[in-house]
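Quick one:
INPUT:
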């Protein structure tokens, strides 16, 4: 599959989301295991790596800086500002001075002179989006950042930001079971020439294989997500056997079907699945070779969508932090 365009960059159709090497889904792998995944991805042709100041409260950026610095010319590096850890807690802070300080710290951890794509991780609703993006534009002018992106914002906010400085990418959750970008975000990106980067394209593991949610680690962020609450997850799991059968019909695994579906939704979409497993990494990258017929796409669309999935994607407090258009949840 041909490369895809993100602002001034050409990247592989499937990137690597690096978050879970340091953060979010229970106990992360050790640094050597994380390094092995990063190097394998690079050797397998991945040239788009996604991290953030928040992930592991800096540990993820440090991991990438340690492992990939010698290979810096071989990939596009994306990181995020505007949300980071302070005294062990997550803080959203989009003030210009905070953004500048955060990026300086990120550059040091990443062991690089420039971040290729810098996202505003969350819009701080106490700060006009124009002010936050203006500070990020200053970092572009200073040569510390090459292109700008936004994460989890509405079409209206995207347009306001784009009027201040060209936005290269919008990153938002998008998968079969999270269709919110189809309300307005994707259309706005196409109107403005903005690439769409899909995080959690495997539905935080749901589209890979059945999961016993009672065994999730106490620090696993899915414990706070309503779709993974036991009753909701049991309802969602009833969709999986039919979904797995469609994957078998397509000649691929369930994970590959989810990624192939996204890739077929538009050449402007770049999914960034994450994994701690080299075997799963190789499986995910194989999705670029899967071709889905229009008829099979339609059947997958009809099986798992905003009308068949039970529960909201975030709990109420987290939902207040984001700015995206949302479908009304089922049940």
């Amino acid at each position: 599959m041909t490369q895809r365009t993100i602002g001034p960059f050409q990247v592989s159709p499937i990137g690597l989301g690096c978050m879970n090497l340091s953060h979010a889904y229970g106990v992360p792998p050790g640094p050597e295991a994380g390094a092995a995944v990063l190097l394998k991805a690079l050797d397998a042709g991945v040239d788009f790596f996604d991290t953030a100041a928040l992930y592991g409260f800096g540990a993820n950026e440090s991991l990438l800086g340690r492992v990939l610095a010698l290979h810096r010319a071989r990939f596009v590096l994306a990181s995020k500002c505007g949300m980071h850890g302070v005294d062990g807690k997550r803080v959203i802070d989009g003030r210009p001075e905070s953004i500048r300080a955060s990026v300086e710290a990120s550059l040091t951890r990443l062991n690089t002179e420039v971040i290729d794509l810098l996202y505003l991780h969350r819009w701080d609703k106490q700060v006009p989006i124009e002010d936050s993006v203006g500070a990020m534009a200053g970092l572009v002018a200073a040569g510390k950042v090459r292109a700008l992106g936004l994460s989890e914002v509405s079409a209206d906010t995207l347009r306001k930001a784009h009027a201040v400085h060209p936005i290269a990418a919008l990153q938002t959750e998008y998968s079969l079971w999270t269709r919110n970008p189809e309300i307005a975000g994707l259309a706005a990106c196409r109107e403005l020439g903005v690439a769409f980067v899909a995080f959690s394209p495997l539905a935080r593991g749901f589209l890979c294989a059945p999961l016993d949610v009672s065994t999730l680690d106490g620090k696993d962020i899915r414990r706070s997500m309503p779709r993974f609450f036991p009753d909701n997850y049991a309802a969602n799991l009833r969709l999986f056997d039919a979904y797995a059968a469609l994957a078998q019909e397509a000649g691929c695994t369930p994970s590959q079907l989810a990624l192939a579906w996204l890739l077929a939704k538009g050449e402007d979409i770049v999914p960034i699945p994450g994994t701690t497993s080299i075997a799963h990494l190789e499986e995910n990258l194989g999705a670029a070779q899967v071709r889905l017929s229009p008829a099979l796409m339609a059947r997958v669309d009809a099986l798992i969508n905003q009308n068949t999935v039970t529960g909201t994607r975030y709990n109420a407090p987290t939902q207040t932090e984001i700015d995206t258009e949302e479908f009304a949840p089922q049940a």
